[in-house]
Write a structure and sequence with these properties.
Blueprint (H helix, E strand, L loop, with lengths): L3 E9 L5 H11 L3 E13 L2 E7 L2 H12 L6 E4 L5 H11 L6 E3 L17 H7 L5 E2 L3 H8 L12 E10 L2 E10 L2 E8 L9 H14 L4 H17 L13 H8 L3
Parallel strand pairs: 1-2, 1-4, 4-5, 5-6
Antiparallel strand pairs: 2-3, 7-8, 8-9
Length: about 260
């Protein structure tokens, strides 16, 4: 039976990030994708031009509508924007016993704020409900006080995309912090501006793989392979950081 994954987050009108990127990723991994929209955005590859948060009551109505009809095997959480929506999602997630991947969206790659200041503390309270948290370096610093030596929150945390030189080659390094220590995942560094939606796609790939029965380490490895290939074969659209090629990434992630 096909696995089903629910994404909860913001809509990207340009299709490169948010809910749209999540659904494309789910399709690439052969799982059935469902969505609950928290925020509508007017955005493109150059930035976010407008944000319209939905009423928390309507966010809840979307969730109830999905959960009363279709089984959910994993949940991916992205842009939540306000403390009211975060608290609502926390109540739901605490009752649904499936793997949860939390991508703590707070700043777009173009530098636009995507989270109310007063919502940061609420987001910290959501962290313990996740199986894994996938912040970029800036989000890790915002939530945990550091991008590298933060106080471990008791939940595995993957901090993404450190650029380093190893054996004379530039590599991209993701670090998974767990109670047992740090696990590193490396890939060749790709010099590109086409990164729009890469964080969303990485987190939703992990959720799809967890739903399909992979353990966390293997899910992260395959999600990285997916994103790396999707970036490498990006279509080059837009005047800013362009979107990924999700179709190219999916095949590569299942190749090992």
């Amino acid at each position: 039976m096909i696995k089903s994954v629910l994404t909860i987050g913001g809509s990207d009108s340009s299709g490169g990030a948010g809910i749209q990127a999540d659904l494309k990723t789910f399709e690439a991994f052969g799982v059935y994708g469902m969505s609950v929209i928290t925020v509508l955005t007017a955005q493109n590859t150059t930035g976010v031009q407008g944000i319209f948060p939905l009423e928390p009551a309507f966010v809840l109505k979307q969730i109830d509508s999905v959960l009363e009809d279709i089984p959910v095997d994993a949940i991916k959480i992205g842009m939540l924007y306000s403390a009211e929506i975060i608290d609502l999602i926390a109540d739901i997630v605490s009752m649904v016993k499936v793997p949860v991947v939390l991508d703590p969206v707070s700043i777009s790659k173009a530098g636009s704020p995507l989270l109310h200041d007063e919502a940061i503390e609420a987001l910290r309270h959501l962290v313990p409900l996740a199986m894994v948290v996938t912040p970029n370096r800036y989000e890790a610093r915002l939530l945990f006080g550091s991008e590298d030596t933060f106080a471990f929150p008791g939940v595995p945390v993957v901090v993404k995309n450190f650029k380093e030189v190893r054996e004379g080659h530039e590599v991209s390094v993701d670090r998974l912090y767990t109670a047992q220590g740090v696990v590193e995942f490396t890939a060749p560094w790709i010099e590109t501006n086409n990164l729009h939606g890469s964080g969303c796609s990485f987190a939703s790939a992990i959720a799809a793989l967890l739903a399909s029965g992979y353990d966390l380490i293997d899910a992260i490895k395959r999600a990285r392979a997916f994103v790396t290939e999707a970036i490498r074969k990006a279509p080059g659209l837009g005047h800013g950081p362009g979107p990924l090629n999700h179709k190219a990434g999916g095949v590569h992630a299942f190749a090992f």
